[in-house]
Each structure stands twice: as C-alpha cells, then as structure tokens.
Amino acid sequence: MRVTAGLVGLASLAFTVPAEAIPAAPAGVCETYPNAALCAQSPSCDTCHLGSPPALNAYGDAVHGELTPDVEKTPTTFLAELGDALRAVEGLDSDGDGVSNLEEIEAGSYPGNAQSFPGVGGTCSEDEVATASLPGHGYNTCSTDFAFLLRRVSLDFCGTSPTFEDMEAVRSSDDPRAIIVKKLDSCLDSEFWLGRDGFLWNLANDKLRPLKAIKSGDDPGPIPLANYVHDYQLYVWTMIDGHDVRDQLRAQYFVRRIEGPPTTYEQTENTPEQGSLLSLELVEPSRRAGLLTTRWALVNFTMFTALPRTAAARAYRAFLGYDIARLEGLQPVGNEPVDYDDKNVAAEACAVCHSTLDPLTYPFTRYRGIDDVANSATYDANRLDDFANQGPNIPSTPEGGVVLGQQVNDLVGWALVAANSDAFARTVVRDLWVRLVGAEPGLDDAEYEQLWIDLRSTHGYSVEAMLHDLVFTEAYSVP
Ligand code: HEC
Ligand code: HEC
C-alpha cells in the first residue's frame, strides 16, 4: 500500500534526482544497517519522506543536510554518499521522540515520525495500524520484525539459535510469516519442547510438585510411594499434537513415553509401566479425573487426611489459577462450611475461605491417599467410614460438592465443570504466556483474552493451534 502511494507520487513529480535513484534509497539504508529490525523487510519511503515524496520528514531532512548540496545526483552518486550521511545523523533524535535515529532503525521504528518509537506502532503506516486493530482482522503483524521473531521462536521452542541461512531466508522472503510457522511446527516436535525434562515437562513442575524422596518406578527414592512420571507424560500429551488440553482434568487413560529422539507419546488404557504395586495406577477408569486422581496426586496431596483440603486447594490453584490462600476465586456456598471434621472452620474468620474451600473439597474425600499397599490411591465410596474415630460426623460428609458455583455429584463431575470453565482456558494460556512472553499478562490484555477465548472455540482446545497465534501477538513478536 505504501509502495503504491510512493510510486503515484513519483510519477507526478519533476526530478532533480533521477527517478531510478529514489527506489534505491531503502536498499542503501539496509546496506548500511543490514541487521537492523527496520530491514527485516524493505523499509518504506516514509522512513525519510512525509507522505508522498519528495517532501522530507525531519530525519530525511537531516540526511539531506549531509549530502553534497545542489549537485544533480545519479543513482551511483546518491548511494555512494548515502551511507556516510546516514552515519552522520545516527546520534540525533530527528523526530524528538526521545529515541536516537540509530536506536529506532535498529528496533524497527521510524526515526522521522514522533508517533513511532520502539515497542509502539513499529513500521506500520497509520492506515495499517488502523486496519490491523479492527476486530476480526487478526493480529497486527505489520509491525512484526520477522528476523527477531524467527530468533525468538527458535530459542524458545527449539532451544537453538536460527542458522545464518534461516535468517537470510526470512529477511528476503515475500512471506516471512510462513517461514516462522514452519519453524514453529518443527520446534513443536523437538526434544527441547516435548522430551523428558523439556519445556513442557518443566512447565508442569509447579502443578505436580515432584518429590524425589517418595518417587517409585525407575530410579526410585528411599520411600517409593508413587511415580510422578505418569503425571508428566499425561500433562505433555495434552499439550501436543492438537490433543484436547482439557484432558489434564478429564483423562481416564494414561500415556506412555517412547524414548527418542524423537520422543513420542502414546495413549494407554492402563498403567504406563508394570512394576511394583507402588507404581501402579489403581483408580478404576470410570473414577479417573486426569491429573487429579493419579497415584501421585492422591499420595502427595491427599496423604492421610479425611477432608483433603490441600488436594482441592492445589487443584483450584494449579488448573484454575485461583489461590484461595490469597483470597482468589472465592465463591461462597450458602450454609457452608458445615465443619464435618470439627476443625472449627465455620468460625467467621475461617468461613470467608472455607465456605468456598470445603464444598470444593468434598468430592475428593472418596479417594484414598496413603494407605496400606493394596489400597493406597484407590477410589472407595465408603472411605470416610474409616475416619469415624477422628470425628463422629466425618462419615456424613457428602461426595457431592460445588465448584465455580456449580453443584457436582463427584470428582469426575468436578473435573468436567473445571475443564470447561473460562478459568481453566485462561490458566493454560497464562502458564505459556508467562514463560514465553516473559511477564504476567496485563489485566484485560486484549491479545491474551483473545488467545484463551479462541482456545475454547476456534482452536478446539489445541494448545499447538493457540501457540500459532501467540507467537504473532504484539506482546511476543514485537521487540
Ligand atoms: C534514507 C532516506 C530516504 C529514503 C528511504 C527514501 N528517500 Fe527519497 N530522498 C531522500 C533524500 C535525502 C532526497 C533528497 C535528495 C537530494 O535532492 O539531494 C530524496 C529525494 C527523493 C525524490 C526527489 C525529490 C526531488 O524533487 O528532488 C523523490 C521523488 C523521492 N526521494 C522518492 C522516494 C521514494 C519513492 C522512496 C521509497 C521507494 C524514497 N524516496 C526513499 C531520502 C530518502
Ligand atoms: C485466606 C483463606 C483461609 C482462611 C481465612 C482460613 N483458611 Fe484454612 N485453609 C485455607 C486453604 C487454602 C487451605 C488448604 C491448605 C493448602 O493450600 O495446602 C486450608 C486448610 C485448612 C485446614 C486443613 C489443613 C490440612 O493440612 O489438611 C484446616 C483444618 C483449616 N484450614 C482450618 C482453618 C481454620 C480453623 C481457620 C480459621 C481460624 C482457617 N482455616 C482460616 C484457607 C484459609
């Protein structure tokens, strides 16, 4: 669009500079600054001109001032002088926006336009900025620096810098976006991304809270009780290959890892590996709720407690992003907490949290945590009968509860409501956003909101599809 405008202007003018000299100016800029973000694509005439040439902006004026005056220039003499002229005005801030000409060129903004500076507006014309931000138009990629983006995608998703050839290819391509997508696709299958101890594996650390001392299975700790590798594998599975990420909470299957490279994963009906009872998954499939009912989750979070509030609070925090201890996600339920275990949680100072937390916890009460070897980490509808000696009302705790204001009959129901919630989709995107963008999403950040809304709808809960949009957000792609 801007090129057309330039050519129209060009045709109607009388020249003191031969016409061929003019289009050569952008190339001259990039000969001087081959690695600048402004040169990720050919810089527009607006770099030096105001709207239609020949009018010069403040930067163009400054450059003009360094050229030999009043000499009719040929393409060769114009370009021969241009490099030195550009260098001579590098240190100035011609448009007075507080950023020097050189810094702007390197960052890909316009040195002659005070509205454009690094991080804002980029190399978009005003028209492009206006259309790019229209709803439904997609992301604003006119300010994307594709060379920068290729490097970032390579490092974040493959763990390596792009090759020199890749960088050259993206700079000279008519369709740099396609190169980024291709790179992303190949990185999403890399060991760095999906292998053991890879990016996704590590992303689960906060949710799973591994504890080497009680690990069972391969390479066990001193008191082997459960193998969290099962949990990692299930987690990674839900994040790759277009799988439905809600299976973090819904899966009634497990996942086996076939060691690579390339590492691959495979769904399995039952336990990923046979071995001692202490690494088997014993909850029957119809009672499973993904990462909430693995042996690891039950042993590590429910442990010995009748009302495993810690397990419920962890699930609420890890998968819905709400930390009750910080008064987040409070949705008080009427007449709660009942205080079945006589812990005094109905006192006013306690009810503020426990009127949400206790009904959230009831559905967890039918799953055994640490018990004798054959019964650890199993489902038992009558489990609470064993706790009558700890409190006479404990066995009357219901299995049904309330999550996010919705009544549920059991933990499988709890997990379904949670998996289908806005809070879950938001948390999935937020975890990746924090690691990839490098900051918490801002309150009501429009790009972030769009990502989780699309994850739930157009992307069918595929994290890989969501990541194809995330890398083109302004937050990620603009330096
Ligand atoms: C690096 C800055 C720069 C860029 C980029 C640039 N120009 Fe120029 N342009 C100049 C300068 C400086 C002059 C004045 C040259 C002189 O007269 O000595 C000029 C002169 C011109 C003139 C001649 C005006 C006249 O009457 O003397 C036209 C037309 C022109 N440019 C068009 C373009 C077009 C079209 C583009 C984009 C394809 C472009 N320029 C890109 C710096 C630039
Ligand atoms: C700010 C919110 C908040 C308040 C106020 C609060 N609790 Fe809790 N309580 C929690 C959370 C969250 C947990 C789950 C613990 C975890 O995250 O590991 C919990 C867990 C518990 C547990 C179970 C501990 C265990 O190890 O299983 C008891 C008992 C308890 N709270 C009693 C109380 C009592 C009594 C009061 C009032 C004096 C109170 N709480 C006030 C948030 C709160």
Describe the protein.
The chain has 479 residues and is mostly helical. The protein folds into 4 domains: 2-132, no CATH class; 146-187, no CATH class; 199-419, no CATH class; 422-477. It contains 22 helices and 4 strands. It has helices spanning 2-11, 24-32, 58-66, 75-88, 101-107, 126-132, 146-158, 164-172, 176-187, 191-194, 199-203, 205-208, 229-239, 247-250, 295-302, 309-320, 348-361, 411-419, 422-437, 446-456, 463-470, 474-477; strands at residues 254-258, 264-268, 401-403, 406-408. The strands form 2 sheets. A two-stranded antiparallel sheet has the order 1-2. The chain has a two-stranded antiparallel sheet with strand order 3-4. A hairpin with a 2-residue loop joins β3 and β4 (406-408). α7 packs antiparallel against α8 (164-172), α7 packs parallel to α9 (176-187) and α15 packs across α16. The chain is elongated, with a radius of gyration of 30 Å. The two termini are 24 Å apart. The structure holds heme C (2 copies). One heme C (HEC) binds at residues 305, 309-310, 313, 324-325, 327, 343-345, 347, 349-350, 352-354, 357.
Provide a compact summary of the structure.
By secondary structure, the protein is mainly alpha-helical. The chain has helices at residues 2-11, 24-32, 58-66, 75-88, 101-107, 126-132, 146-158, 164-172, 176-187, 191-194, 199-203, 205-208, 229-239, 247-250, 295-302, 309-320, 348-361, 411-419, 422-437, 446-456, 463-470, 474-477, and strands spanning 254-258, 264-268, 401-403, 406-408.
